[in-house]
TrEMBL record:
Its EC number is 2.7.7.79. It comes from the Eukaryota. It catalyses: a 5'-end ribonucleotide-tRNA(His) + GTP + ATP + H2O = a 5'-end phospho-guanosine-ribonucleotide-tRNA(His) + AMP + 2 diphosphate + H(+). Residues 6-135 form the tRNAHis guanylyltransferase catalytic domain. This is tRNA(His) guanylyltransferase. Adds a GMP to the 5'-end of tRNA(His) after transcription and RNase P cleavage. It comes from Pleurotus eryngii (Boletus of the steppes). The lineage of its organism: Eukaryota, Fungi, Dikarya, Basidiomycota, Agaricomycotina. Binds 2 magnesium ions per subunit.
Amino acid sequence: MAGSKYAYVRNFELPDPLLPGTFLVFRLDGHSFHRFSTEHQFTKPNDVQALMLMDHAARDVMEEYKDIVLAFGESDEYSFLLRKSTSLYNRRESKICSTLTSFFTSCYVFHWKEYFPDSPLLYPPSFDGRIVVYPSSREVRDYFSWRQADTHINNLYNTIFWALVQQGGKTTTDAHAALRGTVSSQKHEMLFKSFGVNYNEIDARFRKGSILVRDIEDVSHKPLKWKKNKAKTKINLLHCDIIKDEFWDARPHLLE
Ligand SMILES: Nc1nc2c(ncn2[C@@H]2O[C@H](COP(=O)(O)OP(=O)(O)OP(=O)(O)O)[C@@H](O)[C@H]2O)c(=O)[nH]1
Ligand SMILES: [Mg+2]
Ligand SMILES: [Mg+2]
C-alpha cells in the first residue's frame, strides 16, 4: 500500500545498529538520585532496602532478557552485559536502550512498596541509559573492574565520612576537610581507631556491590555453551570480587 504524501518523513529515521560480534554493556543510572534519596530519606551512607530494590528490578530485567548474562549494581546504577552474539531487537541501539531503561524503571516503581512499605513514592523516579560497545573480553573485564573499584573507593569514603558526621559530631565541611588528601590505608586506620570499625567486616553488599550472574545449572552438559538459550540457567546474586580471575575462570560462558 502506498503511503500518504507525508510518509517520506519516515526516511529521516536513521538505522542505528550496534556493531555485530561485539559485547554490549548497557548501563543505567538514577536521575538526580541525590535529591531522590534525600526526599525519600534513604539511610546514609548505604540504604540496604534501596539497594535491594535496585537488585530486584535488575533481576526482573534479566528474567525478561535472557541474553543478559551478567549485571553489576552499586548506588543508583546498574550495568548489564549482553552476550556477544545477541540479536536482541536486531541490535538496534535506541530500541534496546529505551526498552530496557523503561522496563527497569517500571520494575523499580512496581516493587517500591515491598521495600518501603511506610514511605510512599513522593514523585516518579527516572533513569538514564546508555550502551557501550566493547570489542573484546579484555575491555569487558576492565569495565566491570572499573565499576567495582569505583564502588570500593566511594564506599570507603562515604563510610568514614558519615561516621565522622553521625558519630564524630563533625560538620560535613569539617568531615570533608579531615579526609582531604588521605589515602586508603589512612581511612581504614581512622575508621578503626576512632570508631572501632574494621572496614573489611562491613556488609559485602556495600563493599563489593551486587553481582547478578546467569550461571549454568546443569554443568554435566559440557562444554558450557548457551546453545540458543537451551542451557538451564539460574540467576545468582553475589557480593564477591569480580576483578580477580577466579570469578571469570569459573564462568567461561560469560565471555563466549
Ligand atoms: N543516602 C543514600 N543516598 C544514596 C544511596 N545510593 C545512592 N544515593 C544518592 O544517589 C547519588 C547517586 O550519585 P549520582 O548518580 O552521581 O548523582 P545523581 O544525583 O543521581 O545525578 P545524575 O546521575 O547526574 O542525575 C549519591 O550521590 C547519593 O546522594 C544510598 O544507599 N543512600
Ligand atoms: Mg544518578
Ligand atoms: Mg550514580
